[in-house]
Predict the 3D structure of the following.
Amino acid sequence: MRFALYYIRWHYSQGIVDLIGVVRNFIWFFYTFFSIPLLLKTLFQPFERLGERYSKGFDPGAWAQVFVVNSLMRVVGALLRLFLVLIGIIFIILTIVVGVLFLVAWILAPLLLFFLVTYGLKLMSLGH
Amino acid sequence: MPFSTLKKIIFEIYEPALLLRGVLPPERRHLMYKNILIACAFIFTLAALAFAVDNLATGILPGFSIISSLANRIYGIFLIVFSAAFVFSAFEAMHRSYYFKGLEQILEESNDPVQIPTSWEVATIIFETQGSDITGGFFNSTYGQEVLFRTGISAETFETFETNRTGGVQEEGFIVERDKGVDLATYAKSIYKQDEELRTLFAKNNINLEQFMRAAEWVTSIERKDRQLHRWWSRDNLGRIPGLGKTWSYGPTFLLQRFGHEITEDHIWQTALMTRREEDDEVEELEQILARGRQTNVLLLTNDVLVARQRTAQLYHKIREGHALPPLESRRVFYIDMEAIVIASGEKGIFEANLRQTFTQAVDSGNIILYFENIDTAIRSAQTLGVDLVDILSPYFESSEIQIVFAELSENYNKHLSHESRLAQAFDVIQMKDVGMSGIIDLLQQRAHMHERRSSVVFTIPSLEKIADVADRYFPTGVMPDKAFDLLEELVTYANAEDIEQILAFHVENFVSKKTNVPIGEPSEEEKQKLLSLEDVMHKRVIAQENAVSAVAKALRRARSGIANSKKPLGTFLFLGPTGVGKTETAKALAEVLFDDEEAMTRLDMSEFQAENAVEELIGFADTGKSGRLEALVRQRQYGVLLLDEFEKADKGVHDLFLQILDEGHFTDATGTSVNMRNLIIIATSNAGADLIWEMEKQHKDVSEEKRVLVDYIVSKGLFRPELLNRFDEIVVFHALQMEHVREIAKIHIMNFAKRIAEEKNITVDVTDDLVNYVASKGYDPQFGGRPLERAIMEELEQVIADEMLKGTLRSGDTFTFQSKNEVNQEPNPELKQ
């Protein structure tokens, strides 16, 4: 009996804190795993620093060619980064949704359990 | 704090989890939980199948109609089993919530981390303690038994102790000390201090409080590490999964990977993580310099470059965890092997190109910290190709795009690089502290646990202390703690081969003894006998010189009993005396007795080291890289007797070198590497003062009694400086030999010859007094002592026998008997007995 009381107290206090902590950890994880801050900070940098160096001396043609190549690398880099950031955001949203659902289930656990057991028993008694 | 108060605190904090532990012990709970999850998964599969048959495949799978008919029941069972699994999971979650309470986190998950006054380990011990017996409760608990095991005290020994003890610490009156809180080590310390019988048991087993606490701390750290790993959803664990897109904003690093590796791939990486909380100030200093806007280069000066690498790796851990200063965010640390670039290049042009390309790639990449070791050696290697390394690298020193870390031995830097102003200007110097013995044992604990996970071998605290001690002492090459790690690994293989489960200190001693042939640890009965009768054994070879032999024997017994200074050579002696009185023979006898091998004696003729460059001849030449004679000899034979013949003739610089060796047991060679001489018995011989010894002998004085006079005489002659003489463990004076001594020596020599010829030619030599007297008279020279004896035997005995053999008058199976007519001085008159 003492254990049951301890459990209920924990379930609705530290248990909820722990659960929120786990969800927060996963949000943090996806945020860093998909390098969201780093990619946003370096959004317009050339992909893997690929590009060409501007030659010395005055040669507008060569300059324009290098400018186009380097700009293209920046565009490619930005697109790839945005794509990864987007996937990261989707994962974070999913984590939040699953987390909220789980939290609701946790809070309603006694009712949910009662329902599952009674419904389970009812199904068993129904037969085919 | 009284025990009752601690108990109250523990129950306030941990009671729910402890209650669950009481109702369902961990093993049982885990088994039940596992079974229920398996059942849940099985019924879920059945339910899914039933659903598929019922709704999607009616009529297609007629064989499964029975499942379809039971569909509702299967769904019902699944819901009930699922509910049970949920309940079990919730209970497990509650247990873990308490179990992980106060667990240290590197990446903190809350702004207000929980401070717990007592640890989980102490809580379970107190919960598991039956009755009021605190000592018994501790050692019978799960964690207590682990601590006992780590001290190396066997369970049987403890059982006997428990049966025979009269008291022990009881609950009432037991006061628990608290440092920051009450953890396993503090609790163990409290018991140790208050239980006298326990202290006696530990003292009998050579365990002191520090070792007991270290064992408890080790158990705690293993337990915490396990808990940290179990908590897979922690930021510490999730954060170790490599992320995506981290390198997209930076350039490629293939050249850096060709000539080096990222520090994450280094063997030191894990150790760095485990030990990084210590000496944080060095890591912080490194971090601050590297995070500056310009001139971000660091020179780490250390006595062990591995320490520098470890600190650099610790900083990299910090960077990867997102805890470093912002300018270092996303930086990658590469260890570059400059020697590899030199070897791969082979010639000047290619080397310069490779070097420039590597550094340019690091600059272009934009997030690289380059780490190099032994820069002094690299500069020299580059010089062999005709390249000024510092000159080539200078432009990169100024770049804000890369950071460079050089690690170098302090000694090498002071000797060869301190005058290099280009380095001094571009680099900030951090002088690193040594790891120290305690730090090495910490590292060994981490390593040992790593091996324990992979094999059935388990280490104890005394065994790790022994490893740290003997690795430094008996393995002269290499650096600590690397030597200790190597020894630990070899011990794991040895223990597996020998079926040893628990490695104790004496296993380490046995292993090292076998490997090095040096007696280590408690002497065996046989060795004890040998040591106690050292004088008798040596006198089988060394005639007379009682005082000399006795002095040497006493010094060696001191060394072997473990009371001598372990930072010095095993023994250091200066043998003074005229030529041919047994100085070299004593050294040989010592080698034979102690190392069972006369060849264990290495001889160095010091008269060859009189020139100005004598010291370099001995320790090596820094400019050409040619190694020295002493260095080569010691590396060849690290254990044994080193005989320095005619020591007085060596240059004064050589005497100064030995001043350090006799004092500290090592010297530094030309490359700056320390050469260990602590496993040698060093014997210097000299006939300095021989004329005074002669005078004393004439006056019938006991020379060993007049040692002080002799030493003063030698000092006054300027042959040795007093500080050098004072460094020897013992100055041993050998007196001149008299005719009766020479007879004894002659007898030994003749016996040896007789034995040899009997074995090789099957000829028996009849060793008579006449023969001995005759040879002794021919081989005695008051000035050269017994030295001419060998020649006398050769000329007067060997030659005669050889002639007889050639004539055919002496054949295999014959006996040679020497017969003199009257006097000893008579010419030989050999006669054959068939």
